[in-house]
Amino acid sequence: MSLFVTEGLVKRFGGLLATDQVDLTVAPGEIHALIGPNGAGKSTLVNLVSGLLPADAGRIVLDGVDLTALAPHMRVRHGLARCFQITSVFRNDSVRDNLLLAVQAQAGTSFRCLRRREAETALMDGALALADKVGLADVLDRPAGTLPHGMQKKLDVALALAARPKLLLLDEPMAGMGPEDSLQMVALIDRLRRDTAILLIEHDMDAVFQLADRISVLVYGRVLTSGDAAHVKGHPEVQSVYLGT
Ligand code: ADP
Ligand code: MG
C-alpha cells in the first residue's frame, strides 16, 4: 500500500511541459529520491506537491486524502511537511524559541485543557525532543541566525518535524554543505525513516545512493525510470542522460 501517490501530474509554463504526467508513489517508511538534471522539473514537482503551484492536471493523495485542491497549510495539517532550500528559521530568535514556536503552532488548541504549568512543560519537552533528534541540544540558547549553515539546516528539518508529518519533502538538504555537514545530514535523514516517509530531491549522488530505498529519475518532466540504486546505476539511459558516462 502506498502512503503517497501522484497520478498524472502535469504543469505547463506557457508552451513548456515542466512536469508531464508524473506518477510517483512513496510507501510508509520509505525514502524515495528524485534525481534528474537541471531543468528536469524536480522543484516544480515539489511545488505542486506542497501546493505552492496549482497543477494543470493530475492528483495528489496522502494517506487516502486527496490534497490536490487544498491550500499549502491544509496539506501540512493532513501530514505533509516541507523543508525549503532557503531555511525558514527566525534568525534573531534562539534555537529553543524557534522550536517552541513550531511545537506550539502544531499543538494548536490541544493544550487548552492543561494547566499553564503543564502546558509549558509539554511544549518544552516537545522542543527538547526535537533538538535532541536533530543534534542541536547543545546550542539551544544561540540565536538561530548565528548558527553555521549545517546547523541551520538541521533546525529547518526540526521545524518541519514539529508538524509530525507523514511525508517529509526535502528539496536539496545537502545544498551548499561541505563534506562533514553532508555526512551529518545523511545520518540525520537516515534516522528520520522511523518517524516519517521522505521524498528526497538531492544532487549529491553519494547521499542518494546511500539513503534511498527507491530512486526515480526525472528527465524533461517525465519519469525515465524508477528502482533501487543498482537498477538506476545500471540503466543505460540514466548513465548517458544524467550520470554523464
Ligand atoms: P529542476 O528543479 O529539476 O532543476 P525546475 O522544476 O526548476 O527544474 O524547472 C523545470 C522547467 O520549468 C525548466 O525548464 C524551468 O526553466 C521551467 N520553469 C520552472 N519554473 C518556472 C516558472 N515559474 N515559469 C516559467 N518556467 C519555469
Ligand atoms: Mg530545482
CATH class of the largest domain: Alpha Beta
The averaged pLDDT comes out at 91
Order of helices and strands: EEEHEEHEHHHEHEHEEHH
From the N-terminal CA to the C-terminal CA, the straight-line distance is: 36 Å
CATH architecture of the largest domain: 3-Layer(aba) Sandwich
List the ions, cofactors and other small molecules found in this model.
adenosine-5'-diphosphate, magnesium ion
Helix content: 25-40%
Spans where pLDDT lies below 50 across 5 or more residues: none
The CATH superfamily of the largest domain turns out to be P-loop containing nucleotide triphosphate hydrolases
Main beta-sheet annotation: 6 strands, mixed
In angstroms, what is the radius of gyration?
Answer: 19 Å
Question: What is the fold-level CATH name, i.e. the topology of the largest domain?
Answer: Rossmann fold
Number of helices: 9
Please state the structural category.
alpha/beta
Total domain count: 2
> Numbering strands along the chain, what is their spatial order in the largest sheet?
6-7-8-3-9-10
Number of DSSP strand runs: 10
Tell the overall outline: globular
Q: Beta-strand level of the residues, as a percent range?
A: 15-25%
Protein name: ABC transporter ATP-binding protein
Keywords: ATP-binding, Cell membrane, Membrane, Nucleotide-binding, Transport
InterPro entries: AAA+_ATPase (IPR003593), ABC_AA/LPS_Transport (IPR051120), ABC_transporter-like_ATP-bd (IPR003439), P-loop_NTPase (IPR027417)
GO molecular function: ATP binding; ATP hydrolysis activity
